Amino acid sequence: MGGYMGKVIRVNLTERSVKVEALDLKMAQKYLGSRGFGVKVMLDEVPAGIDPFSPENKLIVATGALTGAPVPTSGRYMVITKSPLTGGIATANAGGFWGPKFKSTGHDAVIFEGKADKPVYLYVEDDRVEIKDASHLWGKRVTEVTEALQREHEGANVLSIGPAGEKLSLIASIMSDLDRAAGRGGVGAVMGSKNLKAIVVKGSKKVPLYDEERTKEVSQEKVKILRDDPVAGGGLPTYGTAVLVNIINESGVFPVRNFQYSYTDKADLISGETMTEKYLVRKAACYRCPIACGRVVKLADGSVVGGPEYETIWAYGADCDVYDYDAINEVNYLCNEYGIDTISAGATIAAAMELYEKGYIKDEDIDADGLSLKWGDPKAIVGWTKKIGLREGFGDKLADGSYRLAESYGVPELSMTVKKQELPAYDPRGIQGHGITYATSNRGGCHVKGYMISPEILGYPEKLDRFTLEGKAAYAKLFHDLTAAIDSIGLCIFSTFGLGLPDYVDMYNAVCGEVYDEKGLLEAGERVWNLERLFNLREGIDSSQDTLPKRLLEEPIKKGPSKGHVHQLDKLLPEYYEVRGWDENGVPTEETLERLGLKEYKKYLSLATE
Q1: Residue 38: strand, helix, or coil
Q2: Which of 29, 32, 195, 316 is deepest in the core (most CB within 10 A)?
């Protein structure tokens, strides 16, 4: 087989021991790698019911079969663990160059177990794997850590946590290449709980290819498709992901003031067009990516840093009613430096602003911080981000996300979360299919694991009426399964702007061998999705959590092109369970597990229904 390097590093931090194990290639093929591999290890090896910060939790960093291969968008890696934010599975994905560089050491994944007695980092250079002291790096921000480790290990790539991860913020991210974030679910806090500051990698090996000539042909063909596509080859390279700001706002599904509204006449102030005109220094691409949606921008002080994505612009912008690009660029940089998930951080500040507006948070709660929680205050979003990163003052409460914040004031319904994870930048009241992917997402509030924005707003692979319910459950399942497959093979989901299931089969088979047809690859994604569902059910996350915030189910959108709509989850959820082959309680049936080759996991079905 090509694609896989054939080795997995297992690090026991408690014992300070390192083992290199052979990758089970049959297992890797069945679960594809990356996300699928990590979820299987978590379900097989981590006991049920543990505290995510317990040494018994594992932190897995895994690449896919195509990560680092000479095919487009092959720069992705995945972090898998038990989420301290949701209590369920965490699968956080990132691009850049770290994933391919790690794979070039000759390894497919690293599994961390236990907890170090003092700060450490892992150094991997080809076959050399060492646990090293990181006491001198503890407390430092991401750029300081990266620069220090690159001075020590010339030519290496660095993945690290910032102060937020060290202080166990439940919204802490893991950073690589300075501004690439494995952002969601509090994965940075799990890394911090293990006293693991960084993973430094330097390699010289190439990904083995089953058919080198065919891989080259397939790659050229797919690159051309992406470059000719109006989104992958036009909107995204020109304006970055912020191209969505005006598009989503003009559909009336751009959440404003903690989802109290869904349209603003100020959207263009924070649009991709405005960023390009006034702040853009250059665009940036991940490994082997023809799309180049990354942005590099200039801050108000003249510094040149990684620019914000659409989600960050929304969370700190419209969701907080702030339309100041200098402030948004600065908080994006601060989140990268402290290692904070920008979606959860911005949305938590927005929730705090509504709590303040409604009188739950009092002036005396925040007076000592010298910051306001008034809508539209650019200084506030900058100041609170710093305090979240360091758990200072009221920032200590914000650092654990909006659900726990709102719950502490007796109004959890003011947290716009699913499974305690903050929702991203699309109001599901005006996008019915997208709403069902939110409610049923295995990792909590999430847009990227089933991006129904593609058919319902952008028209990929076909344009659907975003207000209708017919066929949406089946479409949502398709997007969930396909994305699980794309994540697991190590490619970027933005490649779906142009590429379809046959294209992913072409790339996988050229690199790995004639393994999958279209039905088989999609079924592998379905297998991964069901495995995640079983993990969550085992951890007590059942169908009662397949829901949306009360506001989105009961309060119609107040104004704009989607005015008057609520999300009709009660109609879509039973249909989603049915097309999934789950029972009315959202539990996979024995027949579904048999069909997917998961019969050894039937033992979890009784746990799920107790």
Answers
A1: helix
A2: 316
Confidence of residue 543 (pLDDT cuts 50, 70, 90): very high
Structure tokens at 413: 């319904």
548 with 462, same domain: the answer is yes
State whether 123 and 185 are in the same domain. yes
Could you tell me if residue 214 is inside a domain? Answer: no
- Shared domain for 416 and 516, answered yes or no, is no
Q: What is the CATH number of the domain that holds 501?
A: 1.10.599.10
pLDDT for the residue 55: 98
Confidence band of 606 (pLDDT split at 50, 70, 90)? confident
* CATH number for position 123: 3.60.9.10
Residue 373 is part of which domain span? 247-420
The residue out of 390, 420, 450 marking a domain boundary is 420
3-class SS string, 362-431: CHHHHHHHCCCCCCCCHHHHHHHHHHHHHCCCCHHHHCCCHHHHHHHCCCHHHCCEECCEECCCCCHHHC
Q: Domain check: are 11 and 112 in the same one? A: yes
- CATH code for position 385: 1.10.569.10
* Of 486, 368, 539, residue with least CA distance to 73: 486
CA distance 495 to 72: 8
Query: How many CB atoms within 10 Å of residue 204?
Result: 9
Number of domains the chain contains: 3
Q: Identify the band that residue 83 occupies on the pLDDT scale cut at 50, 70 and 90.
A: very high
Q: Degrees (nearest 5) of the Cα angle 414, 415, 421? A: 165
What percentage of the chain has pLDDT greater than the value 70? Answer: 99
Residue closest to 54 by CA, chosen among 130, 131, 118, 112: 112
Question: Collapsing DSSP states into helix, strand and coil, what is residue 249?
Answer: helix
Q: What is the pLDDT of residue 604?
A: 85
Based on the domain organization, do 432 and 375 belong to the same domain?
A: no
d(CA 391, CA 379): 18
Contact 227, 150 (CB under 8 A): no
Are 154 and 257 in a shared domain?
no
pLDDT at 459 over 80: yes
Same domain (yes/no): 389, 260: yes
Written as six digits, the tokens of 210 are 């089953």
Give the C-alpha separation, 139 to 141, whole Å: 7
Cα 297 to Cα 303, 333, 490, distances in angstroms:
8, 10, 28
Backbone φ and ψ of 94, nearest 5°: -145, 160
% of the chain with per-residue pLDDT over 90: 98
Rounded Cα distance between 480 and 490, Å, is 16
Residue 256 has pLDDT above 90, yes or no: yes
pLDDT reported for residue 608: 62
The pLDDT mean for the chain works out to: 97
397, 420, 443: which is the final residue of a domain?
420
pLDDT digits (tens, 9 = 90+) for 65-78: 999 999 999 999 99
Predicted confidence at residue 605, as pLDDT, reads 84
